[in-house]
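Reading group handout, session on sequence-to-structure problems. Before we discuss, look at one worked example. The prompt was deliberately terse, the way you'd type it at a terminal:

> structure Precorrin-4 C(11)-methyltransferase

The input record follows.
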Amino acid sequence: MTVYFIGAGPGDPELITVKGQRLIRSCPVILFAGSLVPEAVLAGHQASLVVNTAELHLDEIIALLRAAEARGEDVARVHSGDPSLYGAIGEQIRHLRALGIPFEIIPGVTATAACAALLESELTLPDVSQTVILTRYGSKSPLPAGEQLHDLARHGATMAIHLGVPHLAEIVAELLPHYGADCPIAVVHRASWPDQDWVLGTLADIEAKVSAKGFRRTALILVGRVLNTEDFADSALYRESHRHLFRAGAADDTDSR
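And the output record:
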């Protein structure tokens, strides 16, 4: 018996991995986070027990996993996006380890990746940004020391900010001194869902644009110069003069950037 933590992807049922889909269709028990995972992701399942865990607390979820273990039944524990990013699987894993119940994590497509695809952007461009910071806005629960937005913004890297749209004004205020008023910023609502929508602006005008759209939740903020620029060098990866291990007559140089 194994508990499989499966990343269902950002919303589009086709953005799940082949392995994740196979496990959902074969496990006799499915526990899915119904507030963020569309039921279409479960299509084709043969499970005898399917539970939407959106209204359950941790102890109730662990009780279901223990019951499945007692029956010797594999469990598809389905989370949105990639379960290792804001998936709240850490506390579940801690219980499973204490109980001696085997588990495996199946990666999924992140919301950040879905937003980048929608915006037709590469988040790491030569000479612009080679770093992506994934973070959230600390409102109800504080962030660890050194991880406040103004601390992270000093790097000037591409940044993806979760759970921040209701606090957009505060976020803009923290980013402005480090990115500048003309820095591009996008707010993407429900990327890859049928009702997906987005707005692209600058730190100077994004608040008005988001207000006009009416976005209040289930949105991701992306900020960085990579979002609206053609001024960057070509990657060394496909440069004719660049020699590497996989190109005929090349030197052993694996640094392609």
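Points for discussion. First: The first strand starts at residue 3 and ends at 7. Second: The helical segments are 18-26, 58-71, 90-99, 111-118, 149-153, 168-179, 206-213.
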